[in-house]
Amino acid sequence: MSLLKLWLNTSCEDRTPRFATHQIGVSGMVYREETKEILVVKDKNSQFSYWKFPGGLSDLEEDIADTAEREILEETGIKSEFLSILAFRQQHQQPGAFGRSDIFIVCRLKPLTFDIMHCENEISHCKWMSLEELYDNTTDISPITHRTCQIMLHGIKHGFDHVDIRFKEMKSVYKGLKYKLYHRPLP
């Protein structure tokens, strides 16, 4: 795609955006309540050998929930249902972000299936692991995985109304359009 333009107002700086400024990554904490296990993967083509939650980049015009469910299915073969957003991270100058700032969203999902069939092209290992075991394993997980495990444990103990960020579908001011407004539950 190409863009040819000429900024005509020479009395002020050209305010045309240069290009997309951010990429959106989404991962999912798929939690099995009955076994207290979480779905984890190890990437095949990563410089890091950490246990992490399955996920990837959001496609153009793809909702956060749809990205989480799609990426989990593609990487692990597990069908899941989006419940909420637990946390998100904004990071600049991340080497894997194609020169863009990176927004990474961690979602909470419930599994609809349980038999793992991982993508052998992307994933070297995939399994159900005890949430406590994952949280206690500070050498094989990244700081963001450790912190989101802590958030999940807090939600399990005190209720997810204290941690969940859910959405309300709203009517847009633009005729015929809707959007999702994410926020903590109202009392």
From TrEMBL:
Cross-referenced InterPro entries: NUDIX_hydrolase-like_dom_sf, Nudix_hydrolase6-like, NUDIX_hydrolase_CS, NUDIX_hydrolase_dom
Residues in Nudix hydrolase domain copies: 21-153
Keywords: Cytoplasm, Hydrolase, Mitochondrion, Nucleus
One CC-aspect GO term: nucleus
Segments forming a coiled coil: none
PROSITE patterns: NUDIX (PS51462), NUDIX_BOX (PS00893)
Official protein name in the record: Nucleoside diphosphate-linked moiety X motif 6
